[in-house]
Every structure is written in structure tokens, then in C-alpha cells.
Write a structure and sequence with these properties.
The chain has helices at residues 8-18, 21-27, 35-63, 78-87, 106-140, 143-155, 286-322, 340-372, 376-411, 423-431, 440-452, 458-475, 481-504, 511-544, 550-566, 570-578; strands at 66-68, 71-73, 159-163, 179-183, 186-197, 207-213, 226-231, 233-235, 241-244, 247-252, 263-268, 275-280, 324-327, 333-335. It is α+β, with helices and mostly antiparallel strands. The strands form four sheets. Strands 3, 4, 5, 6, 7, 10, 11 and 12 form an eight-stranded mixed beta sheet that branches. A two-stranded antiparallel ribbon has the order 1-2. A hairpin with a 2-residue loop joins β1 (66-68) and β2 (71-73). α7 runs antiparallel to α8, α7 (286-322) runs parallel beside α9 and α7 runs antiparallel to α10. The longest helix has 37 residues, at 286-322. The two termini are 43 Å apart. The structure holds flavin-adenine dinucleotide. Flavin-adenine dinucleotide binds at residues 162-165, 170-172, 195-197, 255, 263, 432, 435-439, 441-442, 445. Flavin-adenine dinucleotide binds next to β3, β5 and α11.
Length: 593
Amino acid sequence: MSEYQFPYKDARFLINDLLDFDRMCADAGLEEVNSELAFAVLEEAARLGSEVLAPLNKIGDKLGSRLEEDGVHQAAGFAEAYRQYVDNGWASLAADEEFGGQAMPRLLAASVVEIWDSSNVAFSLCPLLTTGAVEALAKHGSDELKNAYLPNMVSGEWTGSMCLTEPAAGSDLAAVSTKAVPEGEHYLINGQKIFITWGDHQMTDNIIHLVLARLPDAPAGVRGISLFLVPKFLLDENGQPGERNDAHCVGVEHKLGIHGSPTCSLNFGDNGDGAIGYLVGEPNKGLIAMFTMMNEARQGVGIQSLGVSERSYQQARAFAKERLQGTNSDGSRFPIIEFPDVRRMLMMMKAATEAMRGLIYIAAAETDREHAAANPEDARKHAARTGVYTPIVKGWISELSQEITYLGTQIHGGMGYVEETGSTQHYRDARIMTIYEGTTGIQGLDLVGRKILGDNGEALQELLDEIHATADDMSDVNGLSGMARALLKAVQSGREARAWLLEHASEDRNVAAAVSVNFMMMMGYLCGGWVMGRSALKAAEILDSGNGDQSFLNTKQMTAQFYFDHLLPRCNSCFATVKTGSKSTMALDIDQF
Ligand SMILES: Cc1cc2nc3c(=O)[nH]c(=O)nc-3n(C[C@H](O)[C@H](O)[C@H](O)COP(=O)(O)OP(=O)(O)OC[C@H]3O[C@@H](n4cnc5c(N)ncnc54)[C@H](O)[C@@H]3O)c2cc1C
């Protein structure tokens, strides 16, 4: 398996040049934060990623985790790596200062998380879930809960888990049946949760589960779900983990990928009256609180999809430069990277990962802008834009990562199909990303339902206007007019698709749902075109000034051109399908399948 190297040049270009990090920090009043600090941080993260986490990636895949008498044991080396991660302060990077966080911008945090995800995505799931739990608790928990739990969760001394799924409640959380009965100051929790990522392990002294459950008098459906904090170990009078709570792992899944990440079945209340839990937020409003965590995790899955795609690309690139297959007229051999079709696959991988990275960074910067907004109206606007980005970042990028890791395997030929090269691990690891944190179908529904029909298409309209403005700017630049025309055409299709959706959604209840994934994918390819167009524009500006890394900037422009030639046209095919509505999709009776 090839070594991993963080793509500094691309990250630097996006953070400094495209998103003007220094100005962003100054506008947000973060006086001590600047790009110099950001790149020192990234260098340190890359060292931990490449030297410690990346070598454990294959070990985690081979060994997985195992359930023993005293709970789940993670793969060898993971606990020591986690200790380094915590001791070096990585867990608290973007958390608020109130509970010990370093309050670094989300943009920087997203870039750092890409490093963890490329290095070892199974490992990085553990901090991802803790970060989400911290967010949910900080936003919705009582002061008492926050003071008791957040400092140790922010520092990473304790990890968090997200307990939504039950055997009969997956995408449909209305079916959650775990029960919570009040008893004095706390609640007794009874039920089973399945598929809980890092739901048990031995890396920390405590694990803080955030659990969805129903109160005895709760109304049916999603309006009757509450959120509870259920620690693995109850805290003693000194606030330290003491008595074992009745929340136990009873099984660990054997699965296709991310073997290093234990996927646990957790039983609550098997050995007595119930596990002790504490209400987070208001009764029956648990889903709102959980959405804080889920939105964080959805963007996080987008970053995972990028991280694994980048790792797969790096490995395929190294292989393509080494593997000799062609024969020159003088009998000497040449590497497969010289074949046009291998070039096509590598360019596809490179262009797609760069577009993914750009969109993820833009979305992270939007969250920073929301946090730093000068007034509630501005904050609302940034939140609405983030709302549009989130399902695209999760849905489009995770879907695209399937194709990228597939290509990574394809470039290896037969060696891609055997475990020895490690290429299959990326392919297997990526597979979950379109499934957890809401399947692609759920992301499509979120985009068209809540985010577009929910505000009459206003937030999307603003995004389309911005893409249009980029295309206009590109039209005036020598060498970019062809790409500008293509982007204008794609954004026009985007406008027509939006109008089509607003017009037809009310005609038939199946229409919006049937077109939602194609709609979401269309917006993804369009946003990717926007990112690559903006990048080409910025590269032209820097090249014009005679500064910058000429080779990198030229490469960026050519990669953008490839995106426009090979990936942007997919907007049109998605749009053509959207316009067909639901008719052929829903034409057959169930027994005709
Ligand atoms: C490795 C792994 C880790 C996980 N980690 C966690 C975790 O930490 N915490 C946690 O709570 N859960 C976790 N999950 C559960 C995961 O979030 C669910 O598997 C996922 O949300 C899908 O739910 P489901 O499996 O019940 O599938 P279902 O909901 O049964 O979906 C089956 C199919 O039906 C489609 N579908 C369902 N409803 C709709 C709808 N309304 N509209 C359109 N299509 C629909 C889906 O898109 C899918 O294709 C994990 C799962 C796995 C495999």
C-alpha cells in the first residue's frame, strides 16, 4: 500500500487564495489565527496522519475489533494512536473555548479532518461522533450536564456515540421504541440500539452515548422522541467515572469495510430497571437536538468520502507510474500511465477529488460565516446556504466517492482485486458512506423537500445567482471563455430544474421524491463546476500577476478543463431525467417486479 501525503498545494490554494483565510479570520475577530498558523497546524496533523494513523489503516482492516467479557477491544495500536491524538490537542481544535476548545475556524478543522480520514477513516469515525455529540450537548444540554460532561468530551478524554438506529427504526426514526421512564432526577432507559459506531471500546475511561428514546406519555411519531445522555460509567461525587451503567455492547457487526471501527449493538437496561440517562433539551424535541449532531456528521461523511477518494487516487497514481505494460518499438517497456484510458481514469479521480475538496471547504467556510455573522439576518442567510450544501456534500460526494474508489481499483487491474495492494480497502471503506447518516435517498429528500420546497427555492436561487456571477467573471478572461459558456449553460439548467420542481412538486405526491436523487446529483455536479471554474479563474489571476507556483496553477486550470469536459456534462443528463418526473419510475404495480 502506498504512503499517504496530504495534498498541501491544493489545500493551500483553496484556503489562502480561493477563500482568503486571513481576511475571513480578521472579519470573524480571530486576531491570533492566520494562514501561517493554519499551515503549521496542517503540517503537524499531516505528520500524525502519515506517520501514525496511516500505517494502522491496514492493521485495523485486517484485525477489526472483537467483543470480549469486558466489552469491545479495538484493533492493536488504535488506543496508543488515540492517546497521541488527544495529548496533542487535536480533539478540541474547533470546539468553543467555554469548555476547553481552541475555537479554530471550521474551514481549518475540515482540512485537518481530511487528513484523519485519508489516513485512517475507521479511526477518525470515533472523533467525528464525539465532535457531533459535543455540538448537540453544547447547544441543547442543561448547564449542569454541560459542566459535568463537556470538558472531558471536548478534550477527547471521553468519546461520544450517536444512538438512533433500532432494528425497526432506520431511516424512519418515527418508529424509535426505546423507552425512558422518569425516576427522580434522571430517567431509566430500556431498549436496543443497533449499528452504533464506536459504541464500545477500551480507548477511554468513559463513553457518552446520546440516545433517542420515548417518554411514557409521548405522542406517536417524530414529535414524541426525546434525547438522553447515557454514560457508560456513571459519574461519582468527584465527577469521575464510577459505577458501570447498564448500557452494554452485545454484538459487533462483521461488515464490508471500515473494519477498524466497531459497529455495536447496544442493550440498555438488560440487567435491571434500566440504564440511567439524563434528558438533553426539552421532552419530545429530541430530534431537533439530534439534528445538530446529524448535520455535523453529514458534513463529516462528505469529508470522509473525500479523504478515502484522495487516498485511493494517491495509490492509483503511484501504481500507474510503476506498472509496466506497454512495449516501445525498441522493446523497452513503458508504464500504464501513458495509456490514454488510464489517463482518463486518473484525471477523473484527480478532478473529482479537487472539486469535492473545494466544495467541502466552501461549505465549512459558510459555517464559519454563520458563527461570525454580525446580525441574525446574516446568520439566517448563511445557515440557509449551509442547509443547501449539507445534503449535497453528504449525498453527491459520497456517491462520487464510489466511482473514484472503483476507478482506483480498476487502474490496478487484477492487483486491484486482491487484498495485497490495499486498493480494495478504499473501495470497501467508501461503500458505507452513501448509507449511514441518512442514505443518498434521504439526502435527496432533504434537499428537495426541506431545503428547496421548504423555502420556495430561495436559498438555492441565491446559490445559482452566485454560480452565474462566477461564469460571467470567467467570460472576460482569456482562455476561460469556453468553460464560462459551459458553466452558464449548466447554471441555466439548474434554474430550469428549480423552476420545474417548484411547479410540478404539488401535482403528484411522488414527483419530488422520485426526482430527488437526480436533482441532488445535478446540483452536486453543478457545484463542482462552480468550484473548478472559480479555481481556474483564481489561477488565471495569480498567473497574470506573475506570482505563484506556475506549474501548480497550470495544472489546476487543466484539471478544471477536464472536469468541464467529463463531469459537468452530467448535469444535463441528470436534468433530462428530472424532467421526466415520476411516471416511468412508478409505472409498474408492485407485483410486476
Ligand atoms: C457501519 C454502520 C455504522 C452505522 N453507525 C451508526 C451510528 O453510529 N448510529 C446510528 O444511530 N446508526 C448508525 N448506522 C445506521 C445507519 O445510519 C442506517 O443503516 C441508515 O440510516 C439506513 O437505515 P436502515 O439500515 O434501517 O435502512 P432502511 O431505512 O431500511 O433503508 C433501506 C432502503 O430504503 C430506502 N428508504 C428508506 N426510507 C426511505 C424514504 N423515506 N424515502 C426514500 N427511500 C427510503 C433507503 O434509502 C435504502 O435504500 C450505521 C450503519 C452502518 C452499516
